[in-house]
Please model this.
Amino acid sequence: MANEKRLARELQNLVNNKEPGFHVFYDQECVFDAKPAIYIKFTVAAGLYEGQTHILRFNMQYKRDGEQHNFPFQPPSARFITHILHANIGAEGGICLDTLKEKWIPVMSILSVYQTIIVLLDTPNNESPLNANGIFNNMDTARGRTTEYYKKNINDSTIQSILHHPSWTDL
Model:
């Protein structure tokens, strides 16, 4: 099981973030259980995704390639619950980010990983795409493409339906 004190500290660290549009949720049925998860709802303040609201899920314990991973000794698994068009974010929300793999160190926090993901949104790595449809060769048209994709796939009721899971608690 993930370190309960560390998870409590991570939750408190996230709750203390006063960034506009930033909200933390956790599944009260499993935050200190076998599969702890933390959810972050955020509105992008600037850049290609400005004004878009998305939800990230961080799993603290999971299996990858048959091997058990336990936060903080291994990185959390992170994925977008909401659809997003980006070269380094897959169709199912998986995120291609070295911080979530080989560059992870146990002193990193969920908040620092979130902040790295925000930076990734405006600095896609087209050399190592997870989603070829999200490659932007022309940054002048990229904002229009991301906005069009967002409007097609996300609306307020989509966000609200995700957030109103019966066991989720807003912090």
